Amino acid sequence: MDQIKQRIIELQIEHRDLDEAIDRLAGTPGLDEVRLRRLKKRKLQIKDSIALLQMRLVPDVPA
Q1: What is the tens place of the pLDDT at every residue in 13-46?
Q2: For the stretch 20-33, what's the b/e string if a residue is b when 16 or more beta carbons lie within 10 angstroms of its beta carbon?
Q3: pLDDT at site 48
Q4: Do residues 18 and 46 make contact, with C-beta atoms less than 8 angstroms apart?
Q5: In this structure, are residues 25 and 35 in contact, taking their beta carbons and an 8 Å threshold?
Q6: What DSSP character marks residue 60?
Q7: How far apart are alpha carbons 19 and 47 in whole angstroms?
């Protein structure tokens, strides 16, 4: 359980760092579209990973 929480924190930090990198790159003249797309794709993958890990933390509720 603690490992999952720690991993979520690590991913949230990486997600925030990518967000800042995307903002910086988007404001750069001669912007590298391929790199920007890769960063955005990685950011979405991290977001999905965070959501999956958070779902693992929530106990199943019987219907």
Answers
A1: 999 999 999 999 988 888 889 999 999 999 999 9
A2: eebeeeeeeeeeee
A3: 98
A4: yes
A5: yes
A6: P
A7: 11
